[in-house]
Amino acid sequence: MEGKENLNLILLNAARKVHRADWNWKGVNSPFARMYMVESGEATVVMPDGRHVIRPGKLYLIPSFVTHGYENDSLFTLYYIHVYEEYNVFDRLSFPFEVDASDLDTLLVRRLLAINPGRELARSDPDSYDNMPTLMHHIARSRKIAFHPSVETRGILLQLFARFLERATVKRYIADGRIDQLLQFISENLHRNIPINELANRCYLSNDHLIRLFKKEMHCTPVQYINRKKIDHARLQLIISDRSIKDIAYGLAFENIVYFYRLFKQFVGLSPSRYRDSMAADSQT
């Protein structure tokens, strides 16, 4: 894969788990990615492209929002790592399901668990943890760990993720490559104003032509898309940081705070302050 991708990997859960024919779930679909490393035994993961037997000696990756299932009828031990990726890299890239695991990968996984105690799921049932309040609770907790282990954790996650990134390919579901490039540009520039004429100039199009082309591919205007992405980013910042609402708005190039409040409520249904309070309450339940 060529090109540059922003990555911000946030550890949610990580542990070693022994299953005794009890890893059997269907229709799992999560807003976070899963990495697995099998220690002993084997099981089956049912992916959209078919059934995959997972065994020792490999690393496995299931991207966010991929519907899948698990089947296991014997003793089976694995390490699991749940990761939230802030910049939606899975929307832009396709990843291999498995890669070879080295001795170093085994050491990295064990070190990750050692510096992040207490990250085991209380229950293996996805319904018990695969929901937005629980997800946001784990994200908030990750942001509160000490600086040194947080830096080491991120380094380990990047090393493990790099095994898959090496073989990742760019998705081509957007028919017009110019729009694909603009989506990447927008993702990397949410911190500033992005006028329509700047986007149009990057594609050598008139403003009207760009808007028509963008609506054909994305079913919304460039301004609507940019605003939605900014509000999505603001929602995450309201949960995982202690920054003031004004600072978050200014950081996304909203100079008019009243407009930011109005836009946030339009997309989310709550004001920024109500949203932050509601997520904080949910994370404690």
Description of the molecule:
The protein has helices at residues 89-92, 103-115, 132-142, 147-165, 177-188, 196-203, 207-218, 222-240, 245-251, 257-268, 272-283, and strands at residues 9-20, 25-28, 33-40, 43-47, 50-54, 58-62, 68-71, 75-85, 93-94, 98-100, 169-170. By secondary structure, the protein is α+β, with helices and mostly antiparallel strands. The strands form three sheets. Strands 1-8-3-6-10 form a five-stranded antiparallel β-sheet.
Helical content band: 40-55%
Number of helices: 11
Task: Please tell me how large the radius of gyration is.
Answer: 21 Å
The poorly predicted ranges are none
Q: Main β-sheet, in a few words?
A: 5 strands, antiparallel
N-to-C CA distance: 42 Å
Give me the oligomer status. single chain
- Which structural category do the helix and sheet elements fall into? alpha+beta
* Backbone shape: globular
Listing every helix as H and every strand as E from the N terminus to the C terminus, the arrangement reads EEEEEEEEHEEHHHEHHHHHHH
Number of strand segments? 11
State the strand order across the main sheet: 1-8-3-6-10
- Classify the beta-strand content into a percent band: 15-25%
Tell me, rounded to a whole number, the average pLDDT.
86
